[in-house]
Design goal:
The complex is a heterodimer of chains A (about 525) and B (about 625).
Chain A lengths: L10 H5 L1 H17 L1 E5 L3 H11 L5 E5 L6 H6 L12 H10 L6 E5 L3 H7 L9 E5 L3 H14 L3 E7 L2 E7 L3 E3 L17 H8 L8 H4 L4 H13 L9 H13 L14 H13 L8 H8 L1 H4 L5 H16 L15 H25 L6 H9 L5 E3 L4 H6 L3 H9 L7 H18 L10 H18 L9 H10 L5 H20 L8 E5 L4 E5 L2
Parallel strand pairs in A: 1-2, 1-4, 2-3, 4-5
Antiparallel strand pairs in A: 5-6, 6-9, 7-8, 9-10
Helix pairs in contact in A: 3-23, 8-10, 10-12, 11-12, 15-16, 16-17, 20-21, 21-22
Chain B lengths: L5 H7 L1 H9 L1 E5 L3 H13 L3 E5 L24 H12 L4 E5 L10 H5 L3 E4 L4 H14 L3 E7 L2 E7 L17 E3 H5 L5 H16 L21 H11 L2 H5 L2 H7 L4 H18 L40 H21 L6 E2 L5 H17 L7 H8 L7 H19 L7 E5 L11 E5 L15 E6 L6 H12 L5 E4 L5 E3 L5 H11 L14 E6 L6 E8 L9 E5 L20 H6 L2 H5 L2 E3 L7 E3 L9 E3 L14 E2 L1
Parallel strand pairs in B: 1-2, 1-4, 2-3, 4-5, 8-20, 11-15
Antiparallel strand pairs in B: 5-6, 6-9, 7-17, 9-10, 11-16, 12-13, 12-14, 14-15, 18-19
Classes of the chains: A alpha/beta (about 525), B alpha/beta (about 625).
GO molecular function, one term (chain B): metal ion binding
Subcellular location (chain B): Nucleus
InterPro entries (chain B): ThiF/MoeB/HesA, ThiF_NAD_FAD-bd, UAE_UbL_dom, Ub-E1_IAD_1, Ub_act_enz_dom_a_sf, Uba2, UBA_E1_SCCH, Ubiquitin-activating_enz
Chain lengths: ~525, ~625
C-alpha cells in the first residue's frame, strides 16, 4: 500500500473534519451542492453568509441595491473604509470569498422587486432564499413564487435588540432528524432468524467464559421463552419487569471456586435493559403512522421522500413494522458472538431495504434507501403557513399564541405584533418609526394604534401591546446592533444548514429573540 | 449619528455605550468562540482589548475560525486575530499575547488592570485558573463553551454568583494500568495503549510509563510466582530487564522488529500469564503470514470518505511499518533531550496510533474501527461548527451588557438547545445563576478539603502532583504545616525545583508528622489569594491504584449542570497524562473520553438541555522546548 488517497485524509476532509462529525460526508456534499440567495448584505446578511462560507456552502448570491455607508462600517465586519460608496453586494462578496476558496459568490446590485419583475426565473435557481431586514409585505410576491416552487424562504431580521426568524415553506422533509431513539433490536417481536439463533444457544452447555459473554439480546430472548412457559403475556408492569430481571439474575453461574455468584456483566446489562425493552409502544410510532396516512404518501409527488414513504407504507402493510435499522449497540460480548449477532441484524436490515427498493416506483440511490430505512422511526415533515395567510388571513391560531404568551417575560408575542406594526408604518410612510427627522415619541402613538390594527385584522381579541414595547421599537429606529445581528445570523445559518442537508429539524416557524434578556421563544400559529 | 458608532449608541443608549468604550477587556482564547467574540466586541464599541492564546493556526480551524485563512496556518492565533480585526477597524487598541495563561507575567496585577474578562477556552485547567485569578482580582468573568450544536454562556461574579468550581465537575474516566497493559476489552483501551506507546517510544524519556505486559496485575497475585516464572521462560534475561523504550533503543527503533515485539512476543508473554485467561478469551498472536487475505473487510464501504474506511489488518501492518519508519527518522533527528509529542492532526502520528490500536484490537478480538473514529476518540474531538459559535458569541455580548449596566442580578446561565420544535420551545434556554456555594474550596469563606489516605504510604509527590495539581488544579502549590514550616514550597529556580523533586517528593507524609486529623494550609504561588485548609484522615488500607480519597470536597453531589466544554476548538485529554510519571504512579491511565456530549434535562420546562462531557479536554500544550511530532 502506498501513500494513496484511500488512507490519508484530503485537505478538504481536514478542513471540514470537525463538522463532518456532525452531518457526515453526504451532509457535506449536500451543503456543497447548495446555492443560497441572500437578499440584502446588512450585518445580519453578511453574518449569515459568513457562517455558510466557512463550512463550505457551494454558492451564494447577494441581491442588494444599497451602497456602503459610514454607518455600515460601524456594525458590519465585512466592509472596510475603502468600500464606502461601493455597492454593498460587491464589497461583501469580495471579503466573504476570502474565507474559503472553494466557495463561489455572486453579487447582484439591484432591488429584489426589480429582479423579480425583470426575471422571475432568477429566484428559481436557489436551494434556499434568505430575506434580511425586509418588511414582510414587500416579500409577498417573492414568497408566492418560492412557495409554488417549494423553495424554502427564511425571513430574518435584527431590529434593535429584537431578533426575528421565520421559516416559510409548504413542506420540508427530513430523513435524518437525529432524534434520539431507543435501540432497535426487536426483542419483543424477534424475526425468525434471530429467534432461531437465540434458541440455538443452550446456556447450560456453555463454559463459564462463554456463558459470561453471551450478548444480552440472546439472554433476553431466552428469558422470554422461559417466561412464556408460565405467563400468557410479556412483562408489562413494573413488578413483572422486576420479576423477569430476577429470573435472569437466577441464571447467573456460581464462581469456579464456588464462592458465590460470578460477576457476569452481560447479565447485568440484560437486567438493566428490561425497562426499555418491555416498554409498551406501537410497532409504528404515531408520528410515522400520521405520515403514512398523509394523502401525499398514497399519491407521491416526484420527491424521493414521498416515493420512499409510499414504499414504506407497502412495507408496513405487509410486516406491520418499520424496516429494521440494523445497528447493534456496543455490548458485553466476545467478538465472535457479537459479530454473529451483528450479521443477523445486518442481513435482516438488508432484506428490509431490498423490500423497500422493490416497492419503489422509480429507482433511487442505494445509499439513500439505506439511510431512509435506518432512520424510518424518526422521519419528520415540517409545514408552515404561507406568508400570505399570515399577513392577510384571520389566523385562529394566532389567538392561541396570544393566549399562550400571557405572562411570558420575553414578551415575544408583543414584539412580534409590534414588528408587524412597524412594517405597516413602513408601508404607509416609507420609513420605519423613529427614523429620519422625527423624534421617536412622535411615532409611538401611531405605531401603537397600528399594533391594534394588526391584532384586529388577525382576529385576536382582548390583547394589547404594552406602551413600553412600542416605545422601544421606536427608539431602535430599525437600527442594527452587531451582537444581535451576529446571534440571529448564527441561528439563520444553522437553519439553512438544516434545510439544505435535510438533517435535524428546523424550527417551526417563527422565532423571536429578546436581546435585552438573551432569551427567545418559538411561535407557531 | 452618521459616524460608525451611530447604531450602537442609539440602541444601547449613551450611558451604556460610554461604559463599553471605557471598559478594558481581556479575552482569553482566540479559537472557535474567540474569533467570533473578538469581532463582536470590536463592533460593540470596546476600544481596549487584550487577547491571549498560545495556539497556532491549524487547517482544521478554518471551518469556523473566520479571522484566519489558509495562508495563516502555523502562525499565532492571537496575533493573526489582532491583525484581522485591526484591518477592519484600525483605530482600536488590541494587544495580542501569544502565550500560555499560566505564565508568570499574567499575574494578579495583570488581571487587576481589566474591567471585564471573557473566557473562550477549550480546557478545564485553564478555565479553573482564570476563574481563580478573576476571583482574586474581583473582576467579573463571562464563561462560555460549545460542542457541536450545543453551547452555553454564564457569568461569574465574586460573592454574587457561583464560581466555575462551586460544583464539582465529573472527573475524567480513567482505566487501570493493568487493563491497558494486559487485558483490554474495548477499542478505547487499545487507543489509550497506542497513545502510551507513542509517548513511551518517542516522547520524553520516562522509564516508568511502560506499555509492556505487567506482571504486577492484582489478578495474578494468587499465583504470582507461577506467572513470573512463566514470564521468565518467555523472555530472555536482557529483554526482561528492559522496558519497551530501552528495548526499542537497543534495536535502533526498527519498525519490523517493533511490530514483532509488540504484537507477537509480548502477546506470547501475556498468554503465559495463564490466570488472566481463565475467564477471558485469550488474545491471539499476530500471524504475519496469514493476514494478507482481506478477511476483515466489513460490510460494503461505498459512500464513505477514505478516512472512514475500515483498514484491513494488512493495511494496519503496512501503516504501522510506514509510520514507525517516519517517526524513527524524526525522532533520531531530534536534538539531544528533545522528543516528539503526539498530535491528532499530524497524519503520521495519527496513522501510528490508529494502526497500533487496531492491531492490538485484532490481537484481543475487539472489532476494529476506522481512522476517523479512532481520531475522534484519541484526540478527544468535540465537533465544532461556525453557526453554534456565532450564536454563543452573540449571547456573551448580551450578558456583557448586563454586567456593564451593573445588573449582575439579571445575568443568566444560558444553554443552547439543538432544536426548537413546536410552539413555546426555546432556541436558547436561560436559567438563573446559582448563588455561591459556601463550601466551595475556591471561593468559599472557609474552604476546606478532607482527604483520606495512609500517611505512611503516600508520598509528598502524590500529594503535590496528583491531589493538588491534578485534582484541585493548583499551579504552584505551597503547603504549610501547623508548625508554620513549609512542607512544599514553590521553587524559585531550577535548583530549588531539583531539591523539591529529589529530596522532598520521595518522603512520606508521615515523615512530616501528618497523621489522622492533621490540618495544613494550602496556597498557590500562582493564584493569589487562593487558600484552603487540607485535613488528613487515616485510611484503613492503602490501595496503590487509588492512594487517596477526597471525602469532603466542596460538595460530593453529582452534578449535571453541564459546563460547556470546547470553544469549538478541541483539547487533547491524553496528552497530559501520557507523559506524566505521576499518573502511572497512581496506576491510572488517563483515557480519551468518548467524543460525544450527553444531553441532560434541566429543571426548566424545555428539556433540550445542557451540555456536559464525560471529561473536559485538558490541553496541556506547553510550547516550551518540545518539538512537534
Amino acid at each position: 500500500m502506498s501513500e494513496d488517497k484511500n488512507v490519508v485524509p484530503s485537505q478538504r476532509e481536514q478542513r471540514y473534519d470537525r463538522q463532518l462529525r456532525l452531518w457526515g460526508d453526504h451532509g457535506q456534499r449536500d451543503l456543497e451542492a447548495a446555492h443560497v440567495c441572500v437578499i440584502n448584505a446588512t450585518t445580519l446578511g453578511t453574518e449569515t453568509i459568513k457562517n455558510l462560507v466557512l463550512p463550505g456552502i457551494g454558492k451564494f448570491t447577494i441581491v442588494d441595491p444599497e451602497f456602503v455607508t459610514t454607518e455600515d462600517l460601524g456594525t458590519n465586519f465585512f466592509f472596510e473604509e475603502r468600500h464606502i460608496g461601493q455597492p454593498r453586494a460587491n464589497a461583501a462578496t469580495e471579503l466573504l470569498l476570502e474565507l474559503n476558496s472553494s466557495v463561489e459568490g455572486n453579487a447582484k446590485v439591484d432591488t429584489m422587486a426589480n429582479v423579480l419583475a425583470k426575471d422571475p426565473d432568477f429566484f428559481r435557481q436557489f436551494s434556499v432564499v434568505v430575506a434580511c431586514d425586509t418588511p414582510l409585505y414587500a416579500l409577498l410576491p417573492l414568497a408566492t413564487l418560492l412557495w409554488a416552487e417549494q423553495i424554502p424562504l427564511l425571513v430574518a431580521r435584527a431590529y434593535g435588540m429584537i431578533g426575528y426568524l421565520r421559516l416559510v415553506t409548504p413542506e420540508h422533509t427530513v430523513i435524518e432528524s437525529h432524534i434520539a431513539a431507543f435501540d432497535d433490536l426487536r426483542l419483543t417481536r424477534p424475526f425468525p432468524e434471530l429467534l432461531a439463533h437465540a434458541r440455538s444457544t443452550i446456556l447450560d452447555d456453555l463454559s463459564l467464559d462463554k456463558h459470561s459473554h453471551v450478548p444480552y439480546p440472546i439472554l433476553v430472548l431466552r428469558g422470554i421463552d422461559a417466561w412464556r412457559e408460565t405467563h400468557a403475556d410479556l412483562p408489562r408492569t413494573r413488578a413483572e419487569k422486576k420479576e423477569f430481571a430476577g429470573m435472569l439474575a437466577s441464571w447467573r453461574r456460581t464462581k469456579d471456586d464456588g464462592s458465590g455468584v460470578a460477576d457476569e456483566e452481560n447479565f447485568a446489562e440484560a437486567m438493566a435493559k428490561c425497562n426499555t425493552i418491555f416498554r409498551s409502544a406501537p410497532n409504528v410510532p404515531s408520528e410515522i403512522q400520521a405520515l403514512l396516512d398523509d394523502p401525499k404518501c398514497s399519491n407521491p409527488d416526484k420527491s424521493a421522500f414521498w416515493q420512499l414513504c409510499n414504499a414504506l407504507k407497502a412495507f408496513v402493510s405487509v410486516h406491520n413494522d418499520l424496516p429494521l435499522s440494523g445497528a447493534v449497540p456496543d455490548m458485553h460480548a466476545d467478538s465472535r458472538s457479537y459479530v454473529a449477532l451483528q450479521q443477523l441484524y445486518r442481513s435482516k436490515a438488508a432484506a428490509d431495504q431490498a423490500f423497500i427498493k422493490d416497492a419503489l416506483a422509480s429507482r433511487l440511490p442505494n445509499a439513500l434507501v439505506a439511510r431512509f430505512c435506518k432512520n424510518a422511526a424518526g422521519l419528520v415533515v415540517v409545514r408552515t403557513p404561507s406568508l400570505e395567510t399570515e399577513l392577510t388571513g384571520h389566523c385562529g391560531k394566532l389567538s392561541d399564541a396570544a393566549a399562550m404568551s400571557v405572562g411570558d417575560e420575553t414578551r415575544a408575542f408583543e414584539f412580534y405584533i409590534a414588528l408587524r406594526a412597524c412594517d405597516r408604518f413602513h408601508e404607509k410612510h416609507n420609513r420605519y418609526p423613529g427614523t429620519g427627522a422625527h423624534a421617536h415619541e412622535e411615532d409611538a402613538g401611531e405605531l401603537s394604534s397600528m399594533c391594534a390594527d394588526v391584532l384586529r385584522n388577525a382576529g385576536v381579541d382582548g390583547v394589547t401591546i404594552g406602551d413600553d414595547c412600542v416605545k422601544e421599537m421606536c427608539r431602535y429606529g430599525a437600527a442594527q446592533l452587531h451582537s444581535v445581528a451576529a446571534f440571529v445570523g448564527g441561528m439563520t445559518s444553522q437553519e439553512i444548514v438544516k434545510l439544505v442537508t435535510q438533517q435535524y429539524v428546523p424550527a417551526n416557524h417563527t422565532i423571536i429573540y429578546n436581546g435585552v434578556q438573551g432569551d427567545s421563544r418559538t411561535l407557531n400559529f | 449619528m452618521t459616524d460608525r458608532t451611530g447604531a450602537a449608541q442609539r440602541v444601547l443608549g449613551g450611558d451604556l455605550y460610554t461604559r463599553i468604550k471605557q471598559c478594558k477587556l481581556l479575552v482569553v482564547g482566540a479559537g472557535g468562540i474567540g474569533c467570533e467574540l473578538l469581532k463582536n466586541v470590536a463592533l460593540a464599541g470596546f476600544q481596549d482589548i487584550h487577547v491571549i492564546d498560545l495556539d497556532t493556526i491549524e487547517l482544521t480551524n478554518l471551518n469556523r475560525q473566520f479571522l484566519f485563512q489558509q495562508q495563516h496556518v502555523g502562525q499565532s492565533k492571537a496575533k493573526v486575530a489582532r491583525e484581522s480585526v485591526l484591518r477592519f477597524n484600525p483605530s482600536l487598541s488590541i494587544t495580542a499575547h501569544h502565550a500560555n495563561i499560566f505564565e508568570d507575567k499574567f499575574s494578579l496585577g495583570f488581571f487587576e488592570q481589566f474591567d471585564l474578562v471573557m473566557n473562550a477556552l477549550d480546557n478545564l485547567k485553564a478555565r479553573n485558573h482564570v476563574n481563580r485569578m478573576c476571583l482574586a482580582a474581583n473582576k467579573p468573568l463571562i464563561e462560555s463553551g460549545s460542542a457541536g450544536y450545543l453551547g452555553q454562556v454564564t457569568v461569574i461574579s465574586k460573592g454574587k454568583t457561583e464560581c466555575y468550581e462551586c460544583q464539582p465537575k465529573p472527573p475524567p474516566k480513567q482505566y487501570p494500568a493493568c487493563t491497558i497493559r494486559n487485558t483490554p476489552s474495548t477499542i478505547v483501551h487499545c487507543i489509550v495503549w497506542a497513545k502510551f506507546l507513542f509517548s513511551h517510544l518517542y516522547g520524553e524519556a520516562d522509564h516508568e510509563n511502560d506499555v509492556a505486559p505487567n506482571p504486577d496485575d492484582p489478578e495474578l497475585s494468587a499465583d504470582a510466582k507461577d506467572s513470573n516464572t512463566a514470564m521468565d521462560e518467555k523472555q530472555d534475561g536482557e529483554e526482561k530487564r528492559m522496558n519497551t523504550r530501552q528495548w526499542a533503543e537497543s534495536n535502533d527503533y526498527d519498525p519490523q522488529k517493533l511490530l514483532e515485539k509488540l504484537f507477537v512476543r509480548d502477546v506470547i508473554v501475556l498468554l503465559s500469564l495463564a490466570s488472566l485467561w481463565k475467564k477471558r478469551a485469550k488474545p491471539r498472536v499476530l500471524d504475519l503470514s496469514q493476514i494478507n487475505t482481506a478477511q476483515d473487510t466489513h460490510a460494503k464501504q461505498e459512500d464513505v470518505l477514505p478516512d472512514q474506511k475500515l483498514w484491513t489488518v494488512q493495511d494496519c501492518v503496512d501503516r504501522f511499518l510506514h509510520s514507525a519508519g517516519e517517526l524513527k527518522k524524526r525522532f533520531q533527528a531530534c536534538a539531544p533531550g528533545d522528543y516528539l509529542t503526539w498530535d491528532k492532526d499530524d497524519d503520521v502520528a495519527m496513522d501510528f496510533v490508529c494502526a497500533a490500536a487496531n492491531l492490538r484490537a485484532y490481537v484481543f478480538g475487539i472489532p476494529l474501527k476506522s481512522r476517523f473514529d479512532i481520531k475522534s476518540m484519541a484526540g478527544n474531538i468535540i465537533p465544532a461548527i461556525a453557526t453554534t459559535n456565532a450564536v454563543v458569541a452573540g449571547l456573551i455580548l448580551t450578558e456583557a451588557m448586563k454586567v456593564l449596566r451593573g445588573d449582575i442580578d439579571s445575568c443568566k446561565a444560558v444553554y443552547l438547545s439543538r432544536t426548537a420544535m413546536g410552539a413555546g420551545r426555546r432556541v436558547v434556554n436561560p436559567v438563573p445563576i446559582s448563588a455561591p456555594n459556601p463550601k466551595c474550596y475556591v471561593c468559599g469563606e472557609r474552604a476546606q478539603v478532607t482527604v483520606r489516605l495512609d500517611p505512611s504510604r503516600v508520598t509528598v509527590e502524590t500529594l503535590a502532583e496528583q491531589l493538588l495539581k491534578k485534582d484541585l488544579s493548583l499551579v504552584a502549590p505551597v503547603v504549610v504545616l501547623a508548625s508554620g514550616a513549609e512542607m512544599i514550597a514553590a521553587p524559585e529556580d531550577e535548583e530549588e525545583e531539583h531539591i523539591l523533586k529529589t529530596k522532598v517528593y520521595p518522603r512520606t507524609l508521615a515523615s512530616f508528622g501528618i497523621r489522622d486529623g492533621t490540618a495544613c494550609s494550602v496556597m498557590d504561588d500562582m493564584q493569589a489569594n487562593f487558600k484552603l485548609s487540607l485535613v488528613f484522615r487515616q485510611a484503613d488500607e492503602h490501595d496503590p491504584d487509588t492512594p487517596y480519597e477526597i471525602v469532603a470536597d466542596t460538595s460530593t453531589a453529582a452534578n449535571n449542570d453541564g459546563n460547556g466544554v470546547g470553544d469549538g476548538d478541541e483539547g487533547d485529554e491524553a496528552e497530559r497524562g501520557a507523559s506524566s510519571a505521576a499518573a502511572e504512579k497512581r496506576k491510572h491511565s488517563p483515557s480519551p473520553p468518548p467524543p460525544t456530549t450527553t444531553t441532560t434535562t434541566t429543571t426548566q420546562d424545555v428539556g433540550d438541555g445542557t451540555t456536559t462531557t464525560t471529561s473536559d479536554a485538558l490541553a496541556d500544550k506547553t510550547p516550551a522546548k518540545k518539538s512537534k511530532a
